[in-house]
Amino acid sequence: GTATPPRPITVLMMRWLIIRIMLTAGLAKAFGGDPRWLHFTFMEDMYQTSPAPTVLAYYVYHLPHAYHVFEILFTFTAELVAPFLAIFGGRRGRAIAVLIWTIFQLGIQLTGNFAWLNTAAIAAGLLFLDDQMIASGLRRLRLRAWAERLAAFARPAAALPGRRFVVLGALLWMHFGLTIYYPIVVLRGRLVPGLPDPLTHPVQFLFRDLRIANCYALYASTPAQRYDVEFVGSNDGGATWRPYPFRYK
Prior knowledge:
mainly alpha
């Protein structure tokens, strides 16, 4: 990466990706139609119906209701407040957003077994950091040699030929506009009603056929009950059946 550092518009689009992941998940929870999020009762049901809770989730579930209210408030902070801190808060705001997002994802990782999902989300959040922020953190940790080495890597991106840069910029800015329109304005995946066909058909082609953008509505709602497979067996020719429960699930 030192010979061909990323261009500013590319960094912007990668940061916009994680902001979209945050915002669309938060907007889906706040306005997705499941009243349990706004009534602060969602977490109790989520722990009961989670597909693969960890052993820690059992103890967290039995904490007082006030803690579950805090969990929901922190979820909205990570998914609705942190993105705006990252956009408008400068470097300090981005650092705070990374901290909030990382704590949020670690909490999910400790209570739900979603494999690589939360690790990838933490890694994506690190895109909010730049070389200067990392170097400053290294100096505070008295790792000045590492900070100097990082500074030696930082160099401006090589210029692209004018035509190629215009094409790249036009495509990325077009995608930026489309990803504002679809996941946020059309939060629930529905086109704006009443638009004439010449406008709706190209939008359907871009979003539904080419899948240029989509909504990330993770845990906007969950069923109040979850049905699971139960294995039963018989050792007397089918006269008597007994279940074999998963004792530790």
